[in-house]
Amino acid sequence: SLSTRELQALDSAHFIHPFTDTKALAAKGARIISKAEGIWITDREGHRILDGMSGLWCVNVGYGRTELADAAHRQMAELPYYNSFFQTTTEPSILLAAKLAELSPGFSRVFFSGSGSEGNDTVLRLVRHYWSVMGQPKRSTIISRWNAYHGSTVAGASLGGMKYMHEQGGLPIPGIAHIDQPYWVEHGHGMDREAFGKLAASWLEDKILELGPENVGAFIGEPVQGAGGVIIPPASYWTEIERICRKYDILIVADEVICGFGRLGSWWGSQRMGFKPDLMTFAKGVTSGYFPLGGVMVGDRVGEAIVEKGGEFEHGYTYSGHPVACAVALANLDIIEREGLVQRVAEVTGPRLRKGFAALADHPLVAEPEALGFVAGLVLAKEKGGPADGPGFVPFAPELGVGMVCRQHCFDNGLVMRAVGDRMIVAPPLCMTEDEVDELLRRIRYCLDRTYEDVRA
Ligand code: PLP
Predict the structure, then answer these.
(1) Which domains, and CATH codes, for the chain?
(2) Which atom of ligand 1 is nearest to the CA of 151?
């Protein structure tokens, strides 16, 4: 029974935190989260905090679901591990593969990984393998977008478009190209949104023509960019992207790591955005974060080619199809279905969140509040300025770190809200009730008020 201070000292001496300045954190001490229930997390000092980020976009069914713990316990007691390399497999991984196929029309097969990053590494291998099998091995380039997040492995970070990650890691690896993201606030000032969506999609065609269509294998994108700041593209964007990819016979990969399993009010984000991918990466919500699991849903065009003609796929992870992860995923999907969480987000709680976010537009700090399903974002603006048809705001100087100031007010006042620069974002658990959505919105407004007091001073 160590004290919080003792634990914090051990933490800063031994634990390098992801995406964290460990030295700066040591001065302050990490907040130690010790338990959670429903939509609430509690730290070791007893502060109860509304988790507006579902952990890291993953705890879709909320905390404290003993069914998931029971499923893990049963499976661990019976068979904690076996691999799927030796022409062997396990019952939970078979049943989960079949369940995922049932939830994904046109995707009869799945490749399992342990995380979303590994899923995107698998995508790179699968795309190149597919085009080799099809006799077009030159089609090895994958086009992605700036500010996308596709994970932290070498391929995942290369596919991603976070320039600060590239700089630190000597990335991207060869064979990956990027185009600008469909962020209206940044690139579409004053334009009609739908016209901007088509313009942003046309950057893909420009890039394909620059590289030569015969060299391009796939385009990858998150249906709604998440870690980049919840960038919700105009409705015209994905329709146009799909048309362009089909025109040049380029595979479409939807990175569904955040958007999958109900986050946008549909099983898959691509369904909500109205396009049909050839491959879909998933992770997070498949187990609601209770156990690590990821993978790639393989559309029938690719699946049939690689299975019928491709021979052995030289790729795999020790934990591909981990039986405990798969048992937890099955129990998790059962909860999502039984409680109708996808439908509830689509019809009840998602629209309520959207309405509440739109109402934040009257706040003196808030520009461009937007929500879709259970993701939402807004920009903290120095001056809100202009009309609704253009961003028209003046941003804060980045060195002020206003987003981080707001994030701290949120934590101090019982709310997890993430800051991406000066964009504040939420992605709450899908199990939220209507009252809990209202409570989330109340807390957001309160924390914006506290931030406004600071920046006005
Ligand atoms: N893809 C997207 C869209 C993500 O948001 C993430 C993680 O946040 C990943 C991939 C990487 O997943 P993981 O952290 O499980 O490797």
Answers:
(1) 31-61+340-456 (3.90.1150.10), 67-338 (3.40.640.10)
(2) 11
